[in-house]
Write a structure and sequence with these properties.
single chain, 149 residues, mainly alpha, 0% strand
Length: 149
């Protein structure tokens, strides 16, 4: 009987708290968005421009994944297709004048060598990113690793 009473009291307390919060009964609480309505939107920022085909963008640190030196807008990269492999796969790389994907992309997490790209390396943009003309959001004093200079 005592357990039921405690459960009922807890339920009533939670219900009352929820009602106060949803009615704005506690002063000073608001969302991170402030009091703005969600219906007030602005147009999306224009897409950043990717410089035309750059060559060999230098690495800034050891084991940095190579950067993508071209745009990838409208490239299909899904469970069904990987447009990157059309040029960078071992079969077509030489003909397309593209860099072959690394042999490290053909091993699974247990070190087994696979006949095709490992599923954990299939989505290229997890690690590789194109460069664009965006301004720095935060200034920094980063310096490249001396061995790479």
């Amino acid at each position: 009987m005592m357990k039921k009473l405690i459960l009922i009291l807890v339920a009533l307390t939670l219900a009352a708290s929820f009602q106060l919060l949803s009615a704005g009964g506690i002063g000073g609480l608001e969302s991170l968005r402030g009091s703005s309505e969600l219906s007030h939107t602005r147009p999306a920022d224009p897409l950043k421009k990717v410089p035309r085909d750059q060559y060999d963008i230098e690495s800034n640190y050891v084991f940095q994944p190579p950067l993508i030196p071209h745009h990838i807008r409208n490239y299909e990269l899904s469970l069904n297709a990987n447009m990157c492999l059309a040029c960078h796969g071992w079969k077509n790389a030489k003909e397309m004048g593209a860099t072959k994907i690394s042999v490290t992309h053909f091993t699974d997490r247990d070190g087994n060598v696979l006949a095709d790209v490992s599923p954990r390396r299939y989505f290229c943009v997890q690690c590789h990113v194109p460069q664009n003309d965006a301004r720095q959001l935060v200034g920094n004093t980063f310096k490249r690793v001396k061995s790479l200079q």
